[in-house]
Amino acid sequence: MVYKRRVPRFLSSRPDSRLIPLPWELPLAEWPTDYLVALPRGISRHVVRFIKVGNSVYAAKEVIESLAIHEYRTLTDLHRTDTPAVEPLAVVTGRVGLDGEPLDPVLITRHLQFSLPYRSLFAQGVRPETVGRLLDAMVVLLARLHLVGFLWGDVSLSNILFRRDANEFAAYLVDAETAEMHETLTDGQREHDLTIAITNLYGEFSDLEAGRMLDESLDPLKLVESIITRYRELWAELTGAEEFSEQEVFRIENRVRRLNALGFDVAELSIETSPDGSSIRIQPKVVDAGHHTRRLLRLTGLDVEEHQARRLLNDLDTFRVRTSQGSVDEPVVAHQWLTECFQPVVTAVPPELRGKREAAQIYHEVLDYRWYASQRENREVPLLEATWGYIADVLRALPDEDLTDATRVGGDERQLANPYDPSQGFVDDEGPMPEDPWETAEDDEPASPPGFLDIDALRARKR
Ligand SMILES: Nc1ncnc2c1ncn2[C@@H]1O[C@H](COP(=O)(O)OP(=O)(O)O)[C@@H](O)[C@H]1O
Ligand SMILES: [Mg+2]
Q: What would the pLDDT profile of 93-124 be if each residue is shown by its tens digit?
């Protein structure tokens, strides 16, 4: 009899051949640490590990076949619609252990760089205003998912990853196991997701409260209620019909501007006039997120988060005024801005500090730093001088977000029981957590802007 060694099968649209020689015959929990990277991670039901292949880092999750394939396909759908979610790479099936017993398949996604699970954020101490921004980011994610017909089924903080986005946060979906993609969602389906969100988020905020990680001024129930209210307001703004008299045609323009301010473009707006022409009814039919991101990408080729893009575009406008190029073509000025402002700042950052923040985030923080320095010193601080100050005063002191060194995970003082699996907790469950000076800094500076999802304020302003 001839024995054939059973080899695993790879389901993937963009296969990475470096995955093939990995020890698929071992359960993920038993993989030698040479293959692993310790990075901040949320709590999970399944065994999840970050694996290192060359310079790439992937997340691997061991899960039964039907779920692995379902999740792979759903994430692929999301990727196609440009919705913020982790990027699926492959499903490895047909695994057989050394004892000849079958092993569960592994779903592989690309590690979302610079992302933080909510527990890592809260463990550092989070100001109440920051919590408001995290809620806004979640609400935008949920609305974006619903706009493309995605019924999540498992809305929870553990299934979301956050990235810094200028002064705000961007939320990404990480777990699509229970999700379903539809043509469009009914109100009932959206309500279903909201009901699940209420239960899960209330539990998670209560856990944070019990672990003294939630600011005392915040109440889990109020937080959850505010998420639901914000979601409903945003949804109404994105999709609701508006009726007005023929004298108020300007309200069409107002609506589009409000949507732009929220970061959305109107791809299709239905405009109906009553038979006698006295009233007009408008309703956005197709809205796409990423208004500022797309504009910046078109002008400069930089692909960044929405609020970062907004900030960079403002800086580009300022540059245009400062260099008196009001009548010069925008793409020409954009190119100059890129080579004279953006790139010099980014290249001034020493390579060993680049793992701390994304380039666009660094640029945004340098602009903030320069503004405060100029106010303080009552002079116009040049961009590069501000960059050096920022590197020395801020960046050097920040903890790494893009950790690649296993020993630093969990901060300098605390040791994870298993650095590759934060679900197992700390060796001693006491002691300080690492601090993010950016977050814990004394608030002697001008008040931060209100959450951007303040739709009432937006309406008041644009009318
Ligand atoms: N591609 C990824 N990039 C970054 N973190 C990830 C990625 N995939 C998973 N994670 C981390 O692993 C955790 C668990 O993953 P998840 O898919 O939610 O597993 P489970 O189905 O067991 O809940 C997430 O909360 C997240 O912190
Ligand atoms: Mg999960």
A: 999 999 999 999 999 999 999 998 998 889 88
- Residue 437 DSSP symbol: H
Q: Which of 37, 45, 48, 122 to mutate to test the pocket of ligand 1 (most atoms within 8 A of CB)?
A: 48
Residue located nearest, by CA, to atom 20 of ligand 1: 44
Tell me which residue of 66, 28, 31 sits closest to 46, measured CA to CA.
Answer: 28
Which ligand places an atom closest to the C-alpha of 160? 1
Same domain as 311, residue 285: no
> By alpha-carbon position, which residue is closest to atom 1 of ligand 1?
111
Which range marks the domain in which residue 285 is found? 242-289
Q: Is residue 319 part of a domain?
A: yes
In this structure, the answer to whether residues 199 and 263 fall within a common structural domain is: no
Ligand 2 centre and the CA of 4: distance in Å?
A: 36
What's the CATH code of the domain at 147?
1.10.510.10
Q: Do residues 35 and 50 share a domain? A: yes
pLDDT in tens, 284-313: 999 999 999 999 999 999 999 999 999 999
Tell me: do 301 and 255 sit in the same domain: no
Nearest CA to ligand 1 atom 16: 175
pTM equals 0.88
Q: What mean pLDDT value characterizes the chain?
A: 89
Residue nearest to atom 2 of ligand 1 (CA): 111
- pLDDT tens digits for range 377-394: 999 999 999 999 999 999
Residues in the ligand 1 pocket, defined by CB under 6 Å? 41-42, 44-46, 48, 59, 61, 86, 109-112, 115, 117, 158-159, 161, 174-175, 177
- Residues (pLDDT < 50) of the chain are 1, 404-413, 429-438, 440-450
Strand ordering across the sheet containing 160-165 = 116-117, 160-165, 168-173
> Which residue is listed with tokens 């946060």?
169
pLDDT at 453: 74
Residues with Cβ within 8 Å of 394's Cβ and at least 6 positions away in sequence, in order, are: 365, 369, 437, 438
Give the alpha-carbon dihedral of 391, 395, 396, 398, to 10 degrees. 170
Distance, CA 421 to ligand 2 centroid (Å)?
14
- Residues 324, 369 within the same domain: yes
Distance CA 368, CA 370 (A): 5
Specify the number of domains making up the chain. Answer: 4
Q: Among residues 177, 210, 239, which one ends one of the domains?
A: 239
